[in-house]
Amino acid sequence: MSEKKFPAGFLWGxxxxxxxxxxxxxxxxxxxxxxxxxxxxxxxxxxxNAPDFDFTVDEDKYFYPNHIGNDHYHHFKEDIxxxxxxxFKCYRFSIAWSRIFPNGDDEKPxxxxxxxxxxxxxxxxxxxxxxxITISHYEMPLNLVKxxxxxxxxxLIDFYERYARTVLTRYHKQVKYWMTFNEINSAAxxxxxxxxxxxxxxxxxxxxIYQAWHNQFxxxxxxxxxxxxxxxxxxxxxxxxxxxxxxxxxxxxNQLATLQTNQANNFFCGDVQVRGHYPAYTKSLLARQGVQxxxxxxxxxxxxxxxxxxxxxxxxSYYMSAVVDETNDDQEQVSGNLMGGVKNPxxxxxxxxxxxxxxxxxxxxxxxxxxxxxxxxVVENGLGAIDKPDANHYVADDYRIDYLKKHIEAIRExxxxxxxxxxxxxxxxxxxxxxxxxxMAKRYGFIYVDEDNECQGTxxxxxxxxxxxxxxxxxxxxxxxx
Length: 482
What we know:
Keywords: Glycosidase, Hydrolase. It comes from Bombilactobacillus thymidiniphilus. Belongs to the glycosyl hydrolase 1 family. InterPro entries: GH, GH_1_N_CS, Glyco_hydro_1, Glyco_hydro_1_AS. Helices cover 38% and strands 13% of the residues. By secondary structure, it is α/β, with parallel strands linked by helices. The chain has one domain (11-475): TIM Barrel. Strands 1-2-3-4-5-7-13-14 form an 8-stranded parallel β-barrel, surrounded by 5 helices. A two-stranded parallel ribbon has the order 6-8. Helix 7 (155-171) runs parallel beside helix 9. The longest helix is centred in the middle third of the chain and has 25 residues, at 206-230. The two termini are 23 Å apart.
């Protein structure tokens, strides 16, 4: 009989992204980043997808919550101390590329930006928290989008290599765990975040998306090469958006569609970054989207680089599962993490319509482990909800505890299945700006930030009920889930 325990050294923690919490968007030499021109509100993705969107800040028409975030830039010591109080073993955060290279194509880095992350990392280590750094998390310098057209331009490989070399060289002695790109496969649905592509600069041409991916794959391999040359023990992973995907029924049409959906959405980017080569289905996948391999600009030298420097582990986000039905156009649709699908009648949904499926996480862990035979790391998972604090700013978020408890139980079951799971960092461990809607009202954290959708408030931090619950989970290494 298995004891179904989490292994010793399991990395319990939390996850954030620089552009969603730091604020101080032009402080100390920082340049504009892509998120700095994304307006707030539920319509932000529709605004960005409009044919005339040109990456211009229009403060007369829109509000830009990423400019302020939760002001972590001025509160990071307080915030990390709270993470330490919870007992975090690790903290996943990102470095804002435009703090280090304000324009992206600068010859030399901005020392003030590097000094900020010197302090953030030092503060983590002070509280015995292992930093887990995402090198690029939806926050490329805006100049690389406007001047070069985003990641479809191969020049970005050199700019990213310079940036990665700078931060890896600076921090490799303090930071063991890295990821090269956040949710790299999200470009299948929404390429602006990861690739800087919108309708106006070529997002509707699938060739551009696949070219951008290739350029990012090469860049990722170069980061692995740099990191391993600095220290062979560095762990440098990829990071993918994963939504366990089901066929609506046993109709072979839907079964085939589900297979192809998994290839396109869940596996393609991981197959290249983990296995080190393009999968056999690449030609048919591209052909289904009107792209030929001969359309892409790549060299044998680049393919050799992919083969020689695959990633060490698979980081992934998991919030929801998805359903595929090609046989009925009248099925009720639901939203999700940058993608939606057919409503699953067996599942409940969050306040934002994302379907809650803890068993899907166990399936995801098994699928990734079976496919790649490398360690997996759940680096995002959580419940975006409307929190209602009482007069003392206390949030009794039992709904969040219930969500996280069931997903942690699913991870424990996957470990018992034989999956090598490195750790668990729930998303938005402190309230921050939502990437998909630009709202503060969509809260994930264990820590409540007194701030509304217009970034008005005291910015004071308050512990939610889930704070002490998660503290207990970590202290018992997952034995006591309450």
